[in-house]
Design a protein that fits this description.
Shape: globular
Largest sheet: 9 strands, mixed
Helix content: 25-40%
Order of helices and strands: EEHEEHEHEHEEEHEHHEHEHEEHHHHEH
Distance between the termini: 34 Å
Number of strands: 15
Strand content: 15-25%
Oligomer: single chain
């Protein structure tokens, strides 16, 4: 069992979340269809970018808790490329639902980089919705870890580069639960009724629940997945589960409305900076591991600039600044050596550089074919009320 506590961060800036002042989005005439899907309430991240209102800027969409406060500004200063960085992805299916129609019509969606989890990246590549990367513009791509290069959905990484990888476990506050948690099964403790959340990401919620049933998500059948959904449904109907959320669980944990949540590793460590009582549990019975990937949407206006940004963050020194802050698993070789200049203790941080012992308990969710995906997703969307 691994418990993770707040880590020291020196000079890495404040964390930017949904509570940052929201600003409007203006994408220009060619991005009008995309403006409707992206909405006018994007979180600018306060990261030194020119704002989501910039009409001719490199535009990046990413998840919350996924970058430090300095990297975008540093990139702008070094390259002169005006950059708008927004934290407007919080659910793979939800974001895909917003971009699918304009992409299917061959329209620019007003974003030059989007970040999606492996299974959704695979769908976008299969549908032809992303551009092939020009590796001549990304010489630092050779720093991609060898184990991430030849993934099944993108052999040789023609269309994607890993942004970060991470774990899904339980974020919790022992001051509110009244005890340390030791198992995924603790999420079902009746004493926590009404103060528990799970994720809208099916593979995380179903995967962790499968582990409570003694099933390995890497080999589970569709019937196993449906049984896990049935189990969670009982707790949802009883009111034990407060909600199914995206990154919103972070705000709820800090406020104390939620005592225990299925949660993403780096998020919890960042939340612990606001409330040092918040901890991350990665149980010995297992936890989920995943990767998110940067892709360039079809017909993006600033493809070369997007590739320049990917090249910048694949420089180990620049990646170290991101990794030291977000504390997800770095995809870039050389980051461990570079991070020593920021804080030597981070070189041994298992959330950034996990060893074989940590990875032994990390579980992947097996690939589903289209029919399996439809059946399991339909049941899960019914469960979460989507």
């Amino acid at each position: 069992m691994a418990q993770f506590y707040p880590a020291r961060r020196r000079g890495l800036g404040r964390r930017f979340t949904r509570r940052t002042v929201l600003k409007g989005t203006a994408l220009g005439a060619t991005g009008l269809a995309a403006a409707a899907f992206l909405g006018c309430e994007d979180d600018n991240g306060g990261n030194g970018g020119n704002g989501a209102g910039a009409l001719d800027a490199l535009s990046i969409s990413n998840w919350p808790y996924y970058i430090d406060a300095d990297t975008v500004a540093n990139f702008q200063d070094e390259t002169g490329i005006t950059t708008s960085y927004t934290q407007d992805i919080s659910d793979n299916d939800e974001f895909f639902g917003k971009i699918r129609e304009p992409l299917s019509r061959g329209q620019d969606i007003g974003r030059d980089i989007i970040v999606h989890t492996d299974w959704m990246a695979a769908r976008l590549i299969r549908l032809g919705y992303v551009e092939e990367l020009d590796k001549a513009n990304i010489p630092n791509w050779v720093n991609l870890r060898d184990d991430l290069e030849n993934v099944a959905f993108d052999p040789g990484r023609k269309y994607s580069l890993t942004w970060q990888s991470g774990f899904t476990g339980i974020g919790y506050n022992p001051e509110l639960t009244g005890r340390e948690l030791t198992s995924i099964d603790d999420i079902f403790d009746e004493a926590f009724s009404g103060h528990v959340t799970m994720l809208t990401e099916m593979r995380d919620t179903v995967g962790l629940t499968l582990l409570t049933m003694g099933k390995d998500p890497a080999t589970a059948t569709v019937d196993d997945c449906l049984a896990a959904i049935d189990k969670v449904s009982e707790y949802a109907r009883s009111g034990h589960i407060r909600a199914f959320t995206t990154n919103e669980y972070g705000d709820d944990l800090v406020r104390g409305d939620v005592w225990a949540a299925f949660a993403w590793s780096g998020d919890v460590i960042q939340l612990s900076q606001e409330d040092p009582n918040i901890k991350l549990l990665l149980p010995e019975q297992g936890f989920m591991v995943w990767s998110d990937n940067a892709l360039i949407p079809k017909n993006a206006k600033h493809k070369a600039e997007a590739e320049a940004f990917l090249d910048y963050v694949y420089d180990p020194a620049n990646q170290a600044l991101i990794s030291a802050y977000v504390q997800f698993i770095s995809p870039v070789d050389g980051t461990k050596e570079a991070i020593v200049d920021i804080d030597p203790a981070l070189a041994d941080n298992q959330l950034i550089f996990p060893n074989e012992q940590t990875l032994a308990n990390a579980k992947t969710f097996r690939p589903l074919d289209e029919e399996e995906e439809r059946e399991v997703n339909e049941a899960f969307l019914t469960l979460i009320g989507a």
